[in-house]
Amino acid sequence: MSWNVNSLRARLPRVLELLAAHQPDVVALQETKCSADNFPHEEIEHSGYTAIHHSGGQWAGVALLVREPLQAQAPLTRLPGDPVPAEARWCEATVAGTRFVSVYVPNGRSLESPEYRRKLAFMAAAAKRAAAIRSETGARGLVLGGDFNVAPADLDLRDHAAYVGATHVSEPERLALTELLEQGSLVDAFRHLHPGEEQFTWWDYRAGSFHKNIGMRIDLALVGSELQGGLMACGIDRDFRKGFKPSDHAPLLVWLGVG
Questions:
Q1: Beta bridge partners of 54
Q2: Confidence (pLDDT) at 137
Q3: What number of helices (H) and strands (E) belong to the chain?
Q4: Would you call the peptide bond into 40 cis, given omega within 30 degrees of 0 as the criterion?
Q5: 110-162, pLDDT tens digit by residue?
Q6: Best CA proximity match to 236, nearest among 246, 226, 227, 249
Q7: Is 70 helix (H, G, I), strand (E, B) or coil?
Q8: How many CA atoms lie within 13 A of 163 on its CB side?
Q9: Which end of the chain offers a freer environment for a tag, N or C, measured as fewer CB atoms within 10 Å?
Q10: Strand partners, 93
Q11: In angstroms, what CA-CA distances link 13 with 86, 94, 126, 199, 243?
C-alpha cells in the first residue's frame, strides 16, 4: 500500500484506521512532515507495525511500515545522488526477500523553476538506484511505492487544459519516469491490470475537485518484472479521501503474491 498522507501527525487517526481496515503487510508513506523526534512510533507499534522512516522536519519525509512479525532488513534512508538529500524523499528496506521503497518525487513547481531541473535530477538518481538495487541487496524482487508527481499518460488526468505548459505532464518528466521503469525493469501495477481505466489518486482541495472527480493519477506502485506474474489486484481507496481531515491523496492498494 502507498499513501501520501500530507502530514502523518495530522492524519494519524486515518492512518491507523487504514491499517485496521486493510491490514497491509507493507505500507509506503510520503509527506510525513515529521521530525525524527515526533514520529509516532508508539501509536504505530500499538497497531502491530514497525516503522523505518526518513524524516525531514516540516516538509517531505517518507516511511515504510511493516506488519509484525515481518521485519525490515538492511534499511537505507537516503537516495544516492539526491540533489537535496535533507528533504528526506527516499526510504528502502528488504521485507520477506523483496526490496521495498517509499519515494516522494519533488513537485517541480513550474517548467521554468530550478525545482523542475532538480525533479528531473532526482528521477535520474532514482532510476540509477533502482538498477543498482538488485545486485547490491540480493533481494528477490523490487517494489517502489510513492508519490511520483508525474501523470504517466493523458489518461491519468481529467483536466488536460489546466496542465498545458505545466509540470506533472511534460515530456521530460514522462521520459524520466519511463527511464526509471526501464532501468529498474519495473511495471506500473495499476496500469498493467487496468490498461484503459481512468482512475485518480490526487484531487486538489479547492473548487470541489474531488466531488467533480477532477484529479490525477500520480501515486504509483512500480513492481519488478520478476514479480509481475504475482500481481492479483490494484485499486484506489477513495473513502480515505473523504471524511474528517482527509489528505488530498487517496491510498493505493496492491495485492501481490511474492512466494
A1: 62
A2: 65
A3: 6, 14
A4: no
A5: 999 999 999 999 999 999 999 999 778 667 899 999 999 999 999 999 998 88
A6: 249
A7: coil
A8: 19
A9: C
A10: 100
A11: 27, 27, 31, 25, 12
**Residue 19 to residues 24, 67, 173, 180, 249, Cα–Cα distance (Å):** 7, 9, 32, 29, 16
CA-wise closest residue to 98 among 251, 227, 231? 227
Q: Does domain 2-256 fall into CATH 3.90.25.10?
A: no
CA–CA gap between residue 32 and residue 27 (Å, rounded): 13
CB burial of 67-94 (b: ≥16 within 10 Å; e: otherwise) equals: beeeebeeebbebeebbebebbbbbbbb
Residue 251: which pLDDT band, with cuts at 50, 70 and 90?
very high
| Span 60-69, average pLDDT | 97
C-alpha cell at 6: 500530507
Helix axes 114-137, 171-183, angle to 10 degrees: 10
C-alpha span between 30 and 89 (Å, rounded) = 8
